[in-house]
UniProtKB/TrEMBL annotation:
Function in brief: This protein is involved in the repair of mismatches in DNA. It is required for dam-dependent methyl-directed DNA mismatch repair. May act as a 'molecular matchmaker', a protein that promotes the formation of a stable complex between two or more DNA-binding proteins in an ATP-dependent manner without itself being part of a final effector complex.
Domain of life: Bacteria
Gene Ontology molecular-function annotations: ATP binding; ATP hydrolysis activity; ATP-dependent DNA damage sensor activity; endonuclease activity; mismatched DNA binding
Record GO cellular component, one term: mismatch repair complex
Keyword check for Hydrolase: yes
GO biological process, one term: mismatch repair
UniProt family annotation: Belongs to the DNA mismatch repair MutL/HexB family.
The entry's keywords: DNA damage, DNA repair, Endonuclease, Hydrolase, Nuclease
Protein name, UniProt field: DNA mismatch repair protein MutL
Length: 340
């Protein structure tokens, strides 16, 4: 076979660099929704409203009542590696916010038609920045931020081709919202599609939010557990064997308010069932781990959906023990009361 022709090394144009980076973070509308929700929560929103057209492919709007962005910083919000959340390595190592990479808005803007409208409490009016034209102009809205994402992947046809039907993309967006709603019960969330309200969760105590999002059935067929030592708190609800499911679709694990996937911890929960889960049945659970940020590395994956614990084995043991105890306690409750 012929030797490939060598071409000179050249730096990629900025826009292409952003589009390549976007591929890592935003593969579908739901990924954009997740990033925009992260930003709203980092901004201290108490109410977040998501509106979709065409399952999020035609338009995603995320509206919050958070701290807003001052007009002079709006262009910076769209720059790659520009963030208000960390300043140096020390802050990265103990990051408490959901965002810190300063990449999401730049990435989304490079594969869509994006605008930001924002108003800080001090501002006399809101300001809107149109990413394509770079144009800034006065706008009307209360305190907070609205991000509008139109025609996602219009300029990256390969990615656009991989999108599923609008109904499927919308279902993924709803799932992104459920994941956040389960971690932030004190925040109100609403999802609209084609101008109709699809789902709404008002601020509520934690258990009520779990019931609102996962259903009363899950709450009734699950048992709570809680454990706390300095620098670590584990809070959870484990579905009883009868609440096990055919698919692993009711498994919510959070680390410091962030939805993550973790094989070790998933194994800890699964193994607590020993032989009582038949065949391939999957346990259902909601587990929130709050841990000193210095004991966990969140900078492992561009989407931050994986983390690394300093003491993964110790955490596995604790979680397994909590799960085993929760199951044992529920079995004890079910034993018929002894004759007096
Ligand atoms: P990151 O969240 O990692 O900082 P982003 O690209 O998502 O990066 O956002 C860039 C910056 O824009 C944020 O650091 C924040 O200062 C600002 N920002 C984005 N969304 C919002 C919002 N909804 N409310 C207030 N500020 C926001
Ligand atoms: Mg962000």
């Amino acid at each position: 076979t012929a030797m490939p022709v060598r071409r000179p090394i050249a730096e990629l144009p900025d826009e292409l660099v952003s589009q390549i980076a976007a591929g890592e973070v935003v593969d579908r509308p739901a990924a954009a929704v997740r990033e925009l929700l992260d930003n709203a929560l980092d901004a201290g929103a108490t109410q977040v409203t998501v509106r979709l057209l065409g399952g999020g492919i035609r338009c995603i709007t995320v509206e919050d009542d958070g701290m807003g962005i001052p007009p002079e910083e709006l262009p910076l919000a769209l720059r790659r590696h520009a963030t208000s959340k960390i300043r140096d390595l020390r802050e990265l190592e103990c990051v408490g916010s959901l965002g810190f990479r300063g990449e999401a808005l730049a990435a989304i803007a490079s594969v869509s038609d994006l605008s930001i409208t924002s108003r800080t409490p001090e501002a006399a009016h809101a300001t809107r920045l149109d990413a394509r034209s770079g144009e800034l102009r006065a706008a009307a809205r209360g305190r907070g931020t609205t991000i509008e994402v139109r025609e996602l992947f219009f300029n990256t046809p390969a990615r656009r081709k991989f999108l599923k039907t609008e109904a499927t993309e919308q279902a993924h967006c709803l799932e992104a919202l459920r994941r956040q709603a389960l971690a932030y019960p004190e925040v109100g969330f609403a999802l609209w599609s084609e101008g109709k309200l699809v789902e709404q969760w008002r601020p509520a105590p934690r258990q009520q939010r779990l019931a609102d999002v996962l259903g009363e059935d899950f709450v009734a067929a699950s048992r709570p557990f809680e454990w706390e030592v300095p620098a670590l708190r584990i809070l959870g609800r484990l579905g009883l064997p009868e609440a096990a499911r055919a698919r692993a679709d009711l498994q919510y694990l959070y680390v410091n308010g962030r939805f993550v996937r973790d094989r070790t911890l998933a194994h800890a929960l699964r193994s607590a069932f020993d032989d009582v889960l038949h065949g391939q049945r999957q346990p259902s659970y909601w587990v929130a781990i709050d841990i000193n940020p210095e004991l966990v590395d969140v900078n492992v994956h561009p989407t931050k959906s994986e983390v690394r614990f300093r003491d993964s084995r110790g955490l596995h043991q604790q979680l397994r023990r909590l799960a085993v105890e929760a199951l044992a306690q529920s079995r004890a409750e079910e034993l018929p009361a002894a004759e007096p």
